[in-house]
Design goal:
Strand order of the largest sheet: 1-3-2
Strand content: 5-15%
Shape: globular
Largest sheet: 3 strands, antiparallel
Number of strands: 3
Number of domains: 1
Structural class: alpha+beta
Distance between the termini: 8 Å
Oligomer: single chain
């Protein structure tokens, strides 16, 4: 299971262009549990903060097809379960 408790608890995904995207505090967020409610979508900024990488690096992962995403108009959004799968697939040197 993915533990992102080290991420800042003050992160939020503000609604833009009429999209009602909301996120909980990352300290208590279990990315796999959100699927049962509804699919959660995270912005490039929020996803990059969760992964601890720069936004341009995350955009490169999306561009290269290494991280699944969806587009709504010009916005790139990452599904919470795709983000969790990416973290699991790229975790090395640790028992699963």
């Amino acid at each position: 299971m993915v533990d992102i408790s080290a991420a800042s608890p003050n992160l939020s995904c503000e609604p833009r262009d009429g999209l009602a995207l909301q996120s909980e505090h990352f300290a208590s967020l279990d990315l796999r549990e959100t699927r049962s409610e509804s699919v959660r979508l995270y912005s490039i900024q929020t996803s990059a903060e969760v992964l601890g990488i720069a936004q341009i690096t995350l955009r490169a992962l999306v561009r290269d097809g290494k991280l699944p995403h969806c587009r709504v108009a010009r916005r790139i959004l990452i599904r919470s379960d795709d983000l969790a799968s990416f973290i699991d697939a790229n975790t090395h040197g640790r028992a699963k």
